[in-house]
Amino acid sequence: MQLDGKVALVTGSSKGLGRSIVLRLAEAGADVIINYSRDEASADEVRKAAEAQGVRTLVVRADVSRVEGIQQLFDAAITEFGRIDIVVANAGMEKVNVPVAEVTEEDFDLLFRVNTKGPYFVLREAARRLADNGRIISISSNTTTVPQMGVGLYGTSKVATGYLARVMALELGPRGITVNTVVPGPIDGAGIFTDPANDEYKKSLISTVPIGRLGTPQEVAGVTAFLASDDAALITGQQLVADGGMH
């Protein structure tokens, strides 16, 4: 899965799953654009780790839940590298253990802005600016396929990207661009599972996973790198589930 000479943009990539995706793509030889919204120090650490792989990097602060921020991110990437070959729409926000009856309008607006509107316009911008034969990958969640109490809002906010990928696969196929979605289960060491306060919730989830453990950011990054590679040239419009058999 060599990506030498490719340029990859990963949203929300200063920590957690996004960080692992950037480093896996860099390991395969891709130059990488690292995006963050608040944590500059963490983004700089990712930059150093990626550059240690011998690739070029660009760190861009941009709020990718807003169209203006998305356009600024793509502008900076094109200015620096002249092209983009791979776009991974990873940025998102988790909110679990909230019954539908307790969801507020503010909760709804925030999660749909971050998890639905943001990725939609990241993919729109990718469709406009990606080089031919490129790769577009969205990171979703198996809460879209495995109903669980307390994830009604979060799961609903993540549903749209899978459908959008199927539509865009049809629209962009003539240009050789593939569009797919990675659907992870709960990821140990990312999102809410970086907080020890959620350890009991983590234990309850592990009991539902056939392989007996949660996935790791590195494992999901490996799936993403595969879809970004030439080996996956015939795979498009698909949702690749990586959840240890929960689905």
Structure, explained:
The protein is of the alpha/beta class. It has one domain (7-242): Rossmann fold (3-Layer(aba) Sandwich). It contains 7 helices and 7 strands, in the order βαβαβαβαβαβααβ. The chain has helices at residues 16-27, 40-51, 67-81, 105-129, 152-172, 199-206, 217-228, and strands at 7-10, 31-36, 57-61, 86-89, 135-139, 178-184, 239-242. The chain has a 7-stranded parallel sheet, sandwiched between helices. α1 runs parallel beside α2, α1 (16-27) crosses α7 (217-228) and α3 runs parallel beside α4 (105-129). The mean pLDDT is 94.
Q: What layout of secondary structure does this protein have?
A:
Elements lengths: L6 E4 L5 H12 L3 E6 L3 H12 L5 E5 L5 H15 L4 E4 L15 H25 L5 E5 L12 H21 L5 E7 L14 H8 L10 H12 L10 E4 L5
Parallel strand pairs: 1-2, 1-4, 2-3, 4-5, 5-6, 6-7
EC number: 1.1.1.-
Protein name: SDR family NAD(P)-dependent oxidoreductase
Enzyme class: oxidoreductase
Q: Tell me the radius of gyration.
A: 17 Å
Uncertain stretches: none
Instruction: Tell me, briefly, the overall form.
Output: globular
CATH topology: Rossmann fold
CATH superfamily: NAD(P)-binding Rossmann-like Domain
What fraction of the residues are assigned to beta strands by DSSP? 5-15%
- Give, in order, the helices and strands: EHEHEHEHEHEHHE
Number of strands: 7
User: How many independent structural domains?
Assistant: 1
Architecture per CATH nomenclature, i.e. the level-2 architecture: 3-Layer(aba) Sandwich
Oligomer designation: single chain
SS class: alpha/beta
Give the integer mean of the pLDDT values.
Answer: 94
Tell me about the biggest sheet?
A: 7 strands, parallel
Number of helices: 7
In the CATH hierarchy, what is the class? Alpha Beta
Strand order of the largest sheet: 3-2-1-4-5-6-7
Helix content: 40-55%
N→C terminal distance: 27 Å
